[in-house]
Design a protein that fits this description.
The protein is mainly alpha-helical. Helix content is about 50%, strand content about 10%. It contains six helices and seven strands. The strands form three sheets. The protein has a three-stranded antiparallel sheet with strand order 1-2-3. About 40% of the residues are buried.
């Protein structure tokens, strides 16, 4: 057993009334990993609850929120004017792939694909993915892009990983591994 993973999974089950979309995605990934190791039904249920929320948000909203408010009963609302960053979308897509791996829930894979299509359409500016959406409050005066992805995982690295994972799960053949990260044929417009 891996006590650190078990502790992290138990912490992920704890929810607040308000959390960032990226935190929800990271919790989902931890719970999926913990379920894979421990086969604890509580972890699967926690993952199912978070995945359902992310799938609902991805399918119902044009602008993916950066902050989600959980109401009693498991429903969620969004904080007005909170628009997810490119990293948020990439983390959510990767987490939904993790959930698909343990639950084989096609809606999770579909939502991941939708999030990546949104990333490609709303976050691309001048041939680069930007951190902020074209619809964010800051877009009228600045579109930020990070060109160096070597030091830490960033939205570019996470997005590339998510594209590869969604494509592989959708039946698009993976090309290989480069620098420890998966690479794949990417059918999304503008990515290359």
């Amino acid at each position: 057993a891996v006590p650190e993973l078990d502790c992290a999974a138990k912490a992920a089950l704890q929810g607040g009334s308000q959390e960032r979309a990226a935190d929800a995605a990271l919790k989902l990934s931890v719970l999926c990993g913990a379920y894979s190791v421990f086969e604890n039904a509580q972890y699967l249920q926690g993952a199912r609850d978070i995945a359902a929320r992310l799938v609902r948000i991805a399918s119902e909203r044009r602008d993916i929120p950066a902050v989600v408010v959980s109401a009693s009963g498991g429903d969620s609302a969004v904080v007005p004017n909170s628009i997810a960053s490119a990293l948020d979308l990439s983390l959510m897509a990767n987490a939904l792939c993790d959930y698909f791996d343990i639950a084989r829930d096609a809606s999770a894979l579909s939502a991941a694909r939708s999030l990546l299509a949104k990333l490609d359409s709303d976050y691309r500016f001048g041939g680069l993915w930007t951190i902020n959406s074209a619809f964010s409050p800051t877009a009228s005066f600045a579109r930020f892009a990070v060109l160096d992805d070597a030091a830490d995982p960033s939205y570019v690295g996470e997005a590339k990983q998510a594209f590869a994972r969604v494509n592989r799960r959708s039946g698009v053949q993976s090309v290989g591994v480069a620098g420890g990260r998966e690479t794949a044929l990417l059918p999304f417009a503008g990515f290359g």
